[in-house]
Amino acid sequence: MTRPGVLEQVEVPVPTAGPGEVLLAVGAVGACHSDLHVLHAPPGLFPTPMTLGHEIAGTVDSVGAGVTGWSAGDRAAVYGIIGCGTCRGCLRGLENQCRRIPPGGIGLSRDGGLAEYVAVPASRLLHVGNLDLTQAAPLTDAGLTPYHAVELARPALRPGTTCVVIGIGGLGHMAVQILAATTAVRIVAVDSSTAALDLATRVGAHHVVPAGPDAVEKIRELVGPAPDGADVVIDCVGVDPTLTTARSVVATGGQLLLVGLGGGTLPVRPVADEPPTIPLETSVTVPFWGTRAELQEVIALARAGLLTADVQTFPLERAPEAYDLLRRGEIHGRAVVVP
After folding, report:
1. What is the pTM (predicted TM-score) of this model?
2. pLDDT, tens digit, for every residue of 106-143?
3. Per residue in 91-106, is it b (16+ CB within 10 Å) or e — as a string?
4. Which domains, and CATH codes, for the chain?
5. Do residues 144 and 78 touch, judged by C-beta distance below 8 A?
6. Which residues contact 59 (CB under 8 A, 6 or more apart)?
7. Band of residue 101 on the pLDDT scale cut at 50, 70, 90
8. Consecutive H or E run containing 297
């Protein structure tokens, strides 16, 4: 990102690993919608020039002074958040709740992984064993973010309950697998794409519903009329139509998790003389990324063969094209750039 809104391929020096850092030869880096938000953020919110890319896996090239536990040749995934280390969230191990604004991290406040090499603090690395790096990279966000959302809702995800996942893209197809692997809930997948719904079925959804004007009615046929409904709804899109669907099918006392950053608005109007915009006793949560401990668990699921990313790969010189396709909604699963 040479300046706000401008993504260019340029030659930069190979970074060196400073004290406490590791130089990683990048094997794969996921292209995330969040990168587009960074790219088009108001001037001054993120530093420029800056190499984007926060969803990274690679091989250790060299280590800086004071680093232990890592050697050249080790394969690793990068936990992208770098919290302030002193706020209440960071001190509790919840760096995804760091109270510093804007959020800090790889590809957010310092150079990221859309390059052949990236220098990262050794504390950000987690071993991935023999996982293919194009599989390991998406785990760090596309896998971690829905896993964190599921963890937040886990008390409600009891056997026999229903979870609706809206948007079977980079995050949604991982959410379906995480639910299938770690719960006994009925999974209903919603998307406008037939291919995405087919993918949802392959990875564990019990029912699929095409997005559109009939979606709420079809979901209601599965979950029953209000005040009953879906115990948990995970919206991986976050635009007005999906938020309308989500609030229209969630049960009284249910949980609505807004994972997607599509820019939609969720109205909240708790009144007594007309139907509320969201059911009574319903909680709404906006999850953000996840913790290092949760990423370790996501990697464990993948290494056990229970979580597989559907990836579409691009060489580094085609990264701008990958982001254009992502912006237009023409990526299946997760776009992964392979330097």
Report:
1. 0.95
2. 999 999 999 999 999 999 999 999 999 999 999 999 99
3. eeebbbbbeeeebbbb
4. 21-127+309-338 (3.90.180.10), 144-285 (3.40.50.720)
5. no
6. 24, 25, 27, 73, 74, 75, 76, 133
7. low
8. helix 292-303
